[in-house]
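Before the break, one more example. Copy the sequence into your notebook; we will annotate it together after we see the structure.
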Amino acid sequence: MTEPTPAQLAQNLVDLLDVEEIDTDLYRGPRGNDGFGRVFGGQVIAQALQAAQRSTESPKTAHSLHAYFMRPGDEAHPIIYRVVRDFDGKSFSTRRVIAMQRGRPILNMACSLQVPEDGLAHQDAMPDVPPPEDLQAERDLRRAMIDEVPEKFRDQFTRPRMIEIRPVQPRSWFHPVKQEPRQFSWFRVVAPIGDDAALHRAVLSYASDMSLLGTCTLPHGVNWMMNRLQTASLDHAVWLHEDFRADDWLLYATDSPWAGHARGFNRGQIFARDGRLVASVAQEGLIRLRE
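Here is what the structure looks like once it is written out:
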């Protein structure tokens, strides 16, 4: 079967995040088809953000979102997003979004949007890491270990993805070792997606759920490839600081200061290539070891 081109993959992502307004403050998200059966959490977050953004008039733009996952989504069904307009002021608007499948909520999200304005400014320095041009794409790294992957999972493990990731320190999927809970990776959409800033914010929110939860498993020498480890995102927060392009390289620096009680806490900073801190992320996830 012919693989999709980068332009086709990027268009698939654009189409996936193009929520349809079916009534006032009611939206329908397109179905993904990753083949897992379970909907990727970043997809639900990004579609919910798009619903919040489309219910709010410009020039207000999203600057933060806080989401709780309640149930896994099912790829076999579309997701309905109901927006509640809690507040509309001169500077800020607040939206609540309930994502539902088959009559049951799978995610609740609160989102704040602000009219852009100038103010006091400072930021953390960007980590000193190799540029993406000096690193291998994650897909190429996976292909190099294909002989270790059970045959029935090989197509899924090495499939072309809409977001390209280039890890600074590639982790071992099959022979994990205990290491510091810190990761660095570059990511971008595989082809240009136009100039809609709201779409770029949604894409970053989508990608922010990649590579994050795994950070808290690093000190324990386990990963999701092991049958005895059960993982799931519990909550997810994103703060959008500056303008950026999600189809240009962004550096994702993640760390995990704590894990316990079958939960792991993870933090992330996302930098543009020019050194600007464009977003911050936090997430707590389930990391349960089963006998």
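The longest strand covers residues 277-289. The chain has five helices and twelve strands. Try to locate both features in your own notes.
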